[in-house]
Amino acid sequence: MINVQYQAPTEQLQQLVSSLYRFDYSGHALREVERADRAQFRIMLYGQGSYRFADGNEYPTYPVTVIGPTTRPFEAIASGPVSIFGWGMLPAGWAALMGAEAENWIDKAFDARRIFGDTIMDLREELIALAEPAAQFALGEAAAAEIYRNLDGAPFEFTAMVDRWLVDDSDPDVDVLIAESGLSPRQLERMTKRYYGMPPKKLSRKYRALRAANRIAHGDSLDNSDLGLAFYDQSHLTREVKQFTGLTPGQLRAGTSKLTTATMMGRSALGGKVSPLISDS
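Below the sequence we write its predicted structure tokens.
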């Protein structure tokens, strides 16, 4: 059985963290698809497993794992029960933590001890000792605030502009973003690759597909809606949704992936507390 609990970040963290969550799986072998997403910071409370990405590379679930922005769906694999506490990292949060090009870390995972050393294990032990999700969320928020304390150079203005562009139109036009930013196409591509891991056109496609997938998973029809009309036809919709979620519209409606369903329903419940880019995708 899969259970995912979500919590909206505090106002202090809203430009850095998309949401905090606790994931629990109580069954035997687990092999679930995770849709393309923003970067993730994950602390293994118990259990072990791995992440297999679209390029065939497989990474273990380290005690504390950082997953870069993902451009394709990937597999979450475990041999038995698993519990994970984590949070999604918004592009400004990635920049504040890593200070590195997101493009170089797409579809990859690494041991957080590469950044923090063994001190990050103290946070893990404290979370394990608390056990109760409410207390873990409180500690996680405090830890994230400390982790993101150095905000020098965090691109808040740029990422707010890009996020607004992604939200305001069902089929965001790159030319609109070029005009608003005042950047050349090449400069804009370099900036979005640096903070989001991909060029603006692919970023637009990713969130268009994820928003459509979310609506479909909730049983909504896209017929004659602005979002539905953003796709050429049903085949185009199916290809795009599958490319970024690993699932067809029919599989989303049927709830084939319990993890994807739990993720989308949990984030949607945060509506009004987080950006629509988070709750609607």
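The mean pLDDT is 94.
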